[in-house]
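Feature request disguised as a bug: please show the residue count (165) next to Methylmalonyl-CoA epimerase, mitochondrial in the output. Example input:
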Amino acid sequence: SGLLSRLQTSAPTVQTLSSSKSFSQNIPSCLWKLGRLNHVAIAVPDLEKAQSLYKNVLGAQVSETVALPEHGVYTVFVELGNTKLELLHPLGEKSPIASFLQKNKTGGMHHICIEVDDIKAAMTELKKKKIRILSEEPKIGAHGKPVIFLHPKDCHGVLVELEQA
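Example output, currently without the count:
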């Protein structure tokens, strides 16, 4: 009985987040909601080689190549079940992916894409919060839905794409 009583008296108390009322009060209610991770985009210098890696070596379902001239990219989607990878390759010399690959010769993570339920409300609120948006209006993205990009310097070094769910 001596060991048990010592353990009971010396056990540290653990504070739980049952006081989450004060925590949630610090979070302002938004007119829009952040949804699921839609995809992680990877810039690749050789699109066919990258497609082959995911399809033939890793056994993933890989889409056909689609050109998106408005964004200056070729895209390929790799299905992962709970999300996707988007392989990006430059389309034209003014492609943002071409400049990315000049700095990152072997490619690498380019951006993440998160769904939102109201992209216009998100834009309005983010502008009020001094988050820079890289276009005045949403553009149609690879999934045929409106998208915007948030400045990486305002998002801890990550280029964030928001897509209308």
